[in-house]
Amino acid sequence: MMDWMEIRQPLLAWYPEHHRELMWRNTKDPYKIWVSEIMLQQTRVEAVKGYYKRFLADLPDVEALAAVQEDRLLKLWEGLGYYNRARNMKKAACQIKEEHDGIFPRSYEEVLKLPGIGEYTAGAICSICYDSPCPAVDGNVLRVMTRLSGCFDNIDDQRTKHKVRDWLRPVYEAGDCCCLTQALMELGATVCLPNGVPQCMDCPLFKLCQANRDGTWDRLPVRRKKRDRRVEEKTVYILRNGDDYGIRKRNAEGLLANLWEFYHIEGTLSPQEAVHFIADQGFGPVELEKEITYTHVFSHVEWRMTAYYIACAARNDTLKWVERGALSGEYALPTAFRVFLEREP
Ligand code: SF4
Questions:
Q1: Domain range annotation of the chain
Q2: pTM (2 decimals)?
Q3: What's the pLDDT band for 20 if we cut at 50, 70, 90?
Q4: Does ligand 1 have an atom closer than 6 angstroms to the CB of 147?
Q5: 149: Cβ below 6 Å to ligand 1?
Q6: From residue 208, how far is each of 149, 185, 214 by CA, in Å?
Q7: Closest Cα to residue 304, out of 339, 268, 338, 250?
């Protein structure tokens, strides 16, 4: 049985020397830590940097986030995916305004009540900003901890997360909670790697690690088998009339709710079928300029898209027609569709 207190000093000594300089590392402002933690869910650090900077420049505090229009919010989030993260942040900001006079709550229990904030994010905010003894257990930390202990429990099981949190609690109760949280996250991200061989020779916990002793690091952590994704085929039309492109707003519910999209239909049409179909819809196509295929992968579904770039002689009022500049600057077009703008003829 591992004595978890043994990981404390090596982690605290390692972190200041070895961490990456990231914009959200030099603050204890709970709003800024919250924004970074939500953005970093499902998204790589490199991809988050630009979004983080823009988001805080536009929406510097809870007040600004609570007041922002949804279209503007989605535009700031455009390309990050999982757009409910942004919608929940706005809901949470409104809740903080109403229930806490606009001041970010300090207790773990109150933070956990905010929309979109789970145990991990609440732990990260409270330990980093308030030095509270609340371990933040995410995928990185679960990987480090199950390898250290040689634990073969399934990390997708909530009980495993709670077990790991209980292991860490006394380590946190001894203080330096901000540094402990960041050290564990950083170790998981840069040394005890998720893909590929962990850099055990650079690991401050090398001598304590069971997986290293047993050579079992490549079998840990244990995860549930992923479900197969549903595949959907689509024919997408990038319709241009003069300098304007035809777009439409998605439904208010479901995947990519309230974002903008190019006109598309289910199934894959050949070039001839695609041109006939769009002519029947009253767009008066004059020229099929280009055809490309692109597959966009969401967590549970995969869109296999065949896209046709068509210059139209007529407009159909079912679409909104906007200039390229406005399309880039004002309308939130998710990556699944934005990619077609980037590859236009
Ligand atoms: S010694 Fe290797 S496997 Fe063990 S925690 Fe460190 S990096 Fe991970």
A1: 4-219, 230-342
A2: 0.86
A3: very high
A4: yes
A5: no
A6: 8, 18, 12
A7: 268
User: Which residue puts its alpha carbon closest to atom 2 of ligand 1?
Assistant: 200
Tell whether the model's pLDDT for residue 261 goes beyond 80: yes
Q: Looking at the domain 230-342, which fold is it?
A: Nucleoside Triphosphate Pyrophosphohydrolase (3.90.79)
Verify whether ligand 1 is closer than 6 Å to residue 187 (CB atom): no
Q: Which two tokens stand for residue 213?
A: 């002793």
4-219 and 230-342: identical CATH topology: no
The catalytic residues are 37
- Nearest residue (CA) to ligand 1, atom 8: 192
Q: What is the pLDDT of residue 239?
A: 95
User: Stretch 284-313: mean pLDDT, rounded?
Assistant: 91
- pLDDT at position 258: 92
- Please state which CATH number belongs to domain 4-219: 1.10.340.30
Say if residue 285's pLDDT is above 80.
no
